[in-house]
Inverse folding.
């Protein structure tokens, strides 16, 4: 690029558009975190449903500890992505704050449901799942996550009126709509942009 | 009424740097170099001109024992960029 080349007005506008698109391409999410949590929560919900509906083995309910183990790859993914990034977007701090609050909220809710043994704690989790998902979709103008967040809340209402094990199926559906499907869309978009810019 | 385009911004590399910085909160020097495909020397000179004009802030620091230069657009840089785009649009609509 020539440092002192004087541009025509049309060239200037074309350059501005091209540079903004290049930056935009770089701050595209990789989708890995959303896929990870979509898979983990779906798996745990379905195993837990099968156990409560058919198997009735007390130790199988410990499957939810997988969510604690998944924090390790999540930390590795976050560190790698932050090292890869050579810029900070306007959304980064807000998104970080929202998802950290969600993590703390989930841990406190797990502690609460562990102490008080509520009958149908799935509703509380679904309400909580919807908050960061909707906020992320809204802030990034990403419709699949907005839909995922709203779906979480609709499923939360439905889960109040159905017996406990079936509410776990709604939890799996939420994980698919809120994280797995948006994660797939983000991943495809990221890989396409990456290939286009090679 | 058509206004003269800001000479600081009406140059290929400086406009490219400003367009990148308007899209992000802050960016490393290496990010700007990769996206503009310009040489480090050229970018350094243009970044200094933008800094002298008050359009960007430049912070030099160390990250993992390596020097790191962070660039960030200033409020007057944002204002100048917006004014520049507005003038471009006005000019193009007059030309039509």
């Amino acid at each position: 690029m020539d440092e002192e080349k004087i541009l025509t007005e049309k060239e200037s506008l074309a350059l501005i558009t091209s540079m903004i698109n290049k930056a935009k391409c770089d701050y595209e999410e990789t989708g890995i975190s959303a896929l990870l949590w979509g898979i983990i929560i779906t798996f745990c919900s379905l195993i837990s449903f099968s156990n409560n509906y058919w198997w009735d083995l007390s130790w199988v309910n410990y499957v939810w500890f997988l969510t604690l183990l998944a924090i390790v790859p999540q930390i590795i993914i976050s560190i790698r992505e932050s090292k890869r990034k050579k810029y900070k977007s306007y959304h980064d701090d807000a998104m970080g704050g929202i998802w950290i609050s969600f993590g703390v909220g989930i841990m406190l809710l797990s502690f609460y449901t562990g102490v008080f043994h509520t009958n149908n704690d799935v509703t509380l989790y679904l309400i909580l799942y919807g908050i960061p998902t909707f906020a992320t979709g809204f802030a990034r103008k990403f419709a699949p996550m907005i839909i995922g967040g709203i779906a979480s809340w609709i499923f939360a209402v439905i889960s109040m009126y159905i017996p406990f094990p079936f509410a776990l199926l709604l939890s799996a559906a939420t994980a698919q709509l809120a994280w797995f499907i948006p994660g797939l869309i983000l991943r495809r978009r990221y890989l396409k942009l990456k290939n286009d810019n090679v | 009424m058509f206004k003269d385009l800001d000479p600081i911004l009406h140059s290929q590399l400086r406009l490219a740097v400003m367009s990148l910085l308007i899209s992000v909160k802050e960016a490393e020097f290496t990010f700007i170099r990769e996206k503009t495909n310009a040489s480090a020397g050229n970018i350094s000179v243009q970044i200094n001109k933008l800094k002298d004009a008050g359009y960007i802030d430049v912070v030099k620091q160390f990250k993992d024992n390596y020097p790191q230069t962070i660039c960030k657009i200033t409020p007057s840089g944002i204002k100048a960029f917006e004014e520049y785009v507005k003038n471009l649009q006005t000019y193009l609509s007059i030309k039509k």
Summary: Chain A touches chain B at residues 1-7, 9-10, 12-13, 15-16, 18-20, 22-24, 26-27, 86-90, 92 (CB under 8 Å).
